[in-house]
Amino acid sequence: QVQVAESGGGVVEAGGSLTLSCTASGGTFIVYVMGWFRQAPGKEREIVAWSAGRTNYSDSAKGRFTLSRDNKKNTVYLQMNSLKPENTAVYYCATDLPPYGTDWRAASTYDFWGQGTQVTVSS
């Protein structure tokens, strides 16, 4: 079983920044895919950014968020700049093991999830 844990959430004013961290543990493997999702109250979980051979971003994250990895530690980071109130959500980290799915933008593709970390952006 793979365990996933996120950290780094908090409360920040609009225009501020936060960096989230996520670590996958419980195996002797180097994870291939790691993804960041968010879910606001009353809304569906949506992709924010993911890394699977290359770094990818949702349209809303491009230009403001940066995903980076430390593969030796099975850790991924999400640097979030210029935060907006509409970015308020629970942010989740997820990973998967082979056999892999075909769409990394879909939450259903991932089998291992963290508990989430709350990000609140005040106006």
How would the blueprint of this fold be written?
Layout: E1 3-7, E2 10-13, E3 18-25, E4 34-39, E5 46-51, E6 55-57, E7 65-70, E8 75-80, E9 89-95, E10 112-113, E11 117-122
Parallel strand pairs: 2-11
Antiparallel strand pairs: 1-3, 3-8, 4-5, 4-9, 5-6, 7-8, 9-10, 9-11
Describe this structure in words.
The protein has 123 residues and is mainly beta. Helix content is 0%, strand content 48%. The chain has no helices and 11 strands. The protein has strands spanning 3-7, 10-13, 18-25, 34-39, 46-51, 55-57, 65-70, 75-80, 89-95, 112-113, 117-122. Strands 2, 4, 5, 6, 9, 10 and 11 form a 7-stranded mixed sheet that branches. A 4-stranded antiparallel sheet has the order 1-3-8-7, with no helix packed on it. Strand 5 (46-51) and strand 6 form a beta hairpin. The termini are far apart.
**How can the largest sheet be summarized?**
7 strands, mixed
Q: Give the overall average pLDDT.
A: 95
| Gap from first CA to last CA | 40 Å
Uncertain segments are: none
List keywords for this structure.
123 residues; mainly beta; 7-stranded mixed sheet; 0% helix; globular
Concise account of the structure shown:
By secondary structure, the protein is mainly β.
